[in-house]
Amino acid sequence: MQRYDAIVIGGGISGLGVAALLSKKGYRVVLLEKESILGGRSTSFPYRGYTVDIGVHAIASYTSSGIERLVKEVEATLELIPIKPSLMHLDLDTRAYTRAASRERFGDALYNDFKRLVAMVAELDKEEIETVHGQSAERWILDHFDSSELVAFFDKITGFSGQPMDKVSAGAFLETLHDAFTSEATITYPARHGIKALPDVLEGAIRAHGGEIITEVAVQGILFQGDRVQGVQGKIVRPSFISEVEIQAPLAVLTVPLTLLPRFVPSEMIGDELLDKVSRITAENYYYVGLVAGVEASLFEGFSSRFFQWTVDRAGMDWHGLITVPSFVDRELAPEGCHLAFIDSHGPMPYGDQALAGRRQKELLSILREIWPDFDQKTDWLHPVIYPTILPLAQTSLTGPFRPGFRVPGATGLYLAGDATYLTGSGIGSAVKSAFSCADAIEADQR
Ligand SMILES: Cc1cc2nc3c(=O)[nH]c(=O)nc-3n(C[C@H](O)[C@H](O)[C@H](O)COP(=O)(O)OP(=O)(O)OC[C@H]3O[C@@H](n4cnc5c(N)ncnc54)[C@H](O)[C@@H]3O)c2cc1C
Q1: Mean pLDDT of 314-336
Q2: May I ask the CATH architecture of the domain 6-42+193-283+392-446?
Q3: Does the beta carbon of 54 lie inside 6 Å of ligand 1?
Q4: Is the pLDDT assigned to residue 305 strictly greater than 60?
Q5: Taking the model in full, what pTM does it have?
């Protein structure tokens, strides 16, 4: 029977990252993914001639967030296109089309404050940033710049999944900005295949280093002898073939949504402190609200065919729409003569309010019709999407000392990874950072 050193549960970016790092170090690794497709929340799939990304993933801060390091360390290559300027803005009333963070949009005084903030944050070191997780980004900005306009500026230029600055942790805010301001390109997008390019290169790296990947296996429990991991048990869930499976290994890495931890491990092993951290995350009920559409390319004619992503709002709106057209970067994501477009909502999000999420979605659609009166005629297909609790929430009670971390205190050989274990709010960046920290924790314990 095949023997493994480690089982990685979940084939999102964090699971693929840990599995690639461990197999590169010589561990015999098997990764188990319940879906037939790898990448988890960062994946793309073919649909009616388009390549649809689960939610249009810009890769932020490639060179400074650890993503480049991961790709290099596992000896893979990933071709990315830097997006410049990274974000534009359209004012619905004036139709002014400007860079999202620009002098033209915000005026000299505010823009100069922003530039001073950029210079200050780029100089900060990790230790300083770690000390301010307990306060809000709003507090930090007010303490250092005494400018409520600057707080409003960050609410308007997005990031942090639309959470207002009084909720976001200053530590997560500064770490994310530090990554952005010190990276060679703030926003990039894969040159081919949409975001799936990233899981694809990690998958290739795992296989190249002797690791194994099995899809359509839903892990249902961790097997223990005493407090030691023995392996996992789960189900093969292929159409017309459903079977129990048991795989043995002394190490297991759980990368499924952290909120599911209590389903996999008895509470006494998790311990009160980690259980408390997990329940804080579970309590943050969040909705991602968006629309995905295939549209005729002529819709954008004379508008802005050069730009990947732009925000839209008008004076008085306390939220904004974000329009992203990844097929401006890679023409192959849409059939000839068409574009793939995503429109989502940012700003104070519908925390736990499904009715508000539905209304926001309708408002997004009316914004599209306002910008393009022929939107409906030029739309090939349109799908509304509302995902519950999908992004890591970089809030003051969840980051810094409240980060769940990478070990389960009462279980020897069980490790955690995933964006919610790291929680800087930068999505893929958090998932990758968690993969490094988890692999480091495993290495440290094995020594
Ligand atoms: C709509 C949307 C837009 C986003 N936009 C961005 C963006 O622009 N930039 C950015 O950086 N981030 C973005 N994110 C966040 C980013 O997708 C995530 O932070 C990242 O993909 C998380 O990776 P992960 O490996 O931690 O988790 P996941 O991707 O959730 O991976 C967990 C994996 O575990 C698998 N799994 C679950 N249960 C089991 C089981 N029982 N057995 C086996 N496998 C199991 C799942 O199928 C999944 O593949 C976005 C997310 C969404 C949903």
Answers
A1: 92
A2: 3-Layer(bba) Sandwich (3.50)
A3: yes
A4: no
A5: 0.96
